[in-house]
Amino acid sequence: MRRKLSLCYLTPLTFLLALFTIPATGQDLENGQQLFQTLCARCHGMLGGGGEGPSLTRPNLIHAPDDDALVSLIVGGIPGTGMPGSRQLRGEDGPDVAAYVRSLGELPPEEMPGDPLAGAEVYRSVGNCASCHILNGEGNGIGPELSNVGQRRNAAYLRRSVTNPSADQPKLVDRFRGSLNAFMTVRVVSEYGTYEGMRINEDAFTVQMRDLAGEIYSFEKGDLLSYEKALGHSLMPGYNSVLNETQIDNVVSYLMSLK
After folding, report:
1. Most buried residue, 102, 142, 178, 259, by most Cβ within 10 Å?
2. pLDDT digit string, tens, across residues 135-185
3. How many domains does the chain have?
4. Which residue segment(s) compose the domain that 66 sits in?
5. In this structure, what are the phi and psi dihedrals at residue 141, rounded to the nearest 5 degrees?
6. What confidence tier does 50 reach under pLDDT thresholds 50, 70, 90?
7. Cα separation of 99 and 4, whole Å?
């Protein structure tokens, strides 16, 4: 028998969802929430606001245009990305998680901590962010693309990325951390010198990397004196010593506005 929700036993988040959503189906949101927090929160955050994985607190999800597609994505994952499937789900569990995810898109939007227009100026000037990031086709593709980062990441994650970029870098190699492994820092020593940069590709015999100047290198592993994956380290400097708190709030707000 399916459980019925009682307002007396709703968690605070579920109560908010009850206020801001009108369930379109008979799915069990409480079961969906529990499964989401067990299986999905590691990457998407306990409240679905994003982190290592994209934010789910929006009505339109790029890879899930309808509910059937969302269930398929939850169960099967997205091949070639850091999104694994949850094939252990049975019966109505998949639809329950999907219904809960859809309900997150009805929550009020996250408030910006500062002024996005002032943040745009920080991005262009003192931040010099375009030297490593592409935004709307402009900049250098050393770090992640930022054109729609506000659709994928919440304020807390963006602030952490600005002030302590190494915090969310993988501390160990994990095939499910695809989005972060894609920007892994590597150090190479060959007979020609020492190189540090962002790994582009790697197989059993070769490794390709891009340095901060945008130069691309390809190495035969057998010819290297040493090859190190700098786990837990980001090439991006932290901006705590460069920006004041107001500037950080503003640039975070600007990044949140990029949707």
Report:
1. 102
2. 999 999 888 899 989 888 889 889 999 999 988 776 665 554 445 566 789
3. 3
4. 7-104
5. -90, 50
6. confident
7. 15
